[in-house]
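Bug report (template v2)

What were you trying to do?
Predict the complex of my protein with adenosine-5'-monophosphate-propyl ester.

What happened?
Run completed; filing so the output is reviewed.

Input:
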Amino acid sequence: MQIKSFEEYEQTYALSVEQPETFWAGIADNFLWRKKWDKVLSWNFTEPNIKWFEGAKLNITENCLDRHLEEHGDDPAIIWEPNDPERDSITLTYKILHEQVCRFANVLKKNGVQKGDRICIYMPMVPELAVAVLACARIGAVHSVIFGGFSAKSIADRINDAQCKLVITADGAFRGAKQIQLKEVIDDALIGCPTVSKVVVLTHTRTPVSMLKGRDIWWEDEIKLVDTHCPAEEMDAEDMLFILYTSGSTGKPKGVVHTVGGYMVYAGYTFANVFNYKRGEVFFCTADIGWITGHSYIVYGPLSQGATTLMFEGVPTYPTPSRFWEITTKHKVNTLYTAPTAIRSLMSFGTDPVRGQDLSSLRVLGSVGEPINEEAWHWFDEEVGHGKCPIVDTWWQTETGGLMISPIAFVTPTKPGYATLPLPGVQPILVDEQGQEINGNDVSGNLCIKFPWPGMLRTLYGDHDRCRQTYFSAYPELYFTGDGCLRDADGYYRITGRVDDVINVSGHRIGTAEVENAINMHAGVVESAVVGYPHDVKGQGIYAFVIFPNHHEDAELTRKDILQTVTRVIGAIAKPDKILFVSGLPKTRSGKIMRRILRKVAEGETANLGDVSTLLDPTVVDEIIDAAKQA
Ligand code: PRX
């Protein structure tokens, strides 16, 4: 499946556009199917209705596990590096991972889980998390993994939206110097979740936990009661594989649905190609499995290709800012796939931590999640890659399932800050506000995709109409990404950032409306408006303008109370970086907040605010500017 030269890329790309079905059928032939498809693709972007490999039967875990056993059963599938470098790392071979997945799949079955049931997973970055994910897929249960930084309320909303039957969690998680009490958070969440009848709890941090009789069971006890024989459930290509919640412009997170066949082909194909993975190499994706990057490039993509995937429990700066480089040295990492925010944070510690380590094993570097600034790109290139590793700046989204616009390592000439060119099968177009295609080069517009690809979302769980409205209604017959983009004179794409009310904080997507709703829940808050602003390390920070007439004399105390509320309602990841108390917000006569003005204030660019004549009360703006200057 690997493309070897730029010429071959151009030919492959042309084929994928001219004969998409032939192209994707050829790629899909590299996977294991119990029965091949009757039809490669049927689609329309109006409803939308997208079906890939209709009629095909498979199980994704047979592709990720069983098919490697005979020849590569003793190859390492997962290398786990713990938070604490003093603890031993763990290697699971394909044979052992297969056994563990089968065993845990039997635990799920024994506890009443059936094909199609939704399972919530809220776990630390330990091998058992990958085992839990794959065990669901083995028996056709739909996993909904929730990142360990979300609050009880966020979890409850997600569990209720998907009507999950069972939760898999652990006593706690280590993250750097901190411990997170996962089970306690789940206990709080489950007070409001009537559909959950069982909770499987893994022992990890050994924190004391409450175990409710009849509901809570220990992972370690359960696996002793079952054997390792678990035939894989036969799935239709279009059966649901997982739900992953992500933020949108409205307050309610969206349950993005991916299906088995197309997702598998897309994650596997993009992994093999973009990273130029060679069997035996160690692939280190630093994301958490709670995000799409972890789903596609820690679990499904690498394992479908028989790769060795490295799972790291901790954070880049613990116990020291050398940690990524120490891991690279220790495990002879060949590909390091990380986020610009991590690079910027590590850059701030200077070159000593990175120069002290042996990074000679590195062959390919990757970046994901947010635009990478040139300074970070060059530092990554020079200090980490020593000028000899291609950097693949991969643009994609939770909804796209896999990489969309990205260089292919050793094939596509790279350019700092550019995701470069679309991968085979991906047909991007730029449109103006009216939806007219913007042709030619050296142009910019809103990024849309005009033809389906196998990894794309199929619906939003329980709300197909929201899926249509969010992605397929802004511009008829196009998938709208929500991103702004420019295409330079060479036809290279550079993603400039979200054009909707979503902000990207440390590579995590956060809806401004979600944060506003959370702030507004705090007693005393009348109204709030949240915008993003440029942040040196996080890419974007969260700036909240809050109307709070009678706040505490010590404004700092009130700020902390608000942060606490946001942490309770969403989770610590959504805490505003700045809170400004104001007495009014700039609104139009029809009551709409003019965020454009707030963004300028947040960026400190108040000299040219543009037209404010449509505001109901233009004096509000001066007051906000004064308050911001004093803050
Ligand atoms: O704005 C784009 C940004 O992240 C958004 C998708 O976020 P999420 O669904 O959480 O997935 C993140 C990991 C795939 C996009 O709409 N984004 C992602 N990758 C890049 C990027 N922006 C610029 N360059 C990238 N390489």
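What did the reviewer find?
The two ends are 56 Å apart (CA to CA). Residues 118 and 164 are 5 Å apart (CA to CA).
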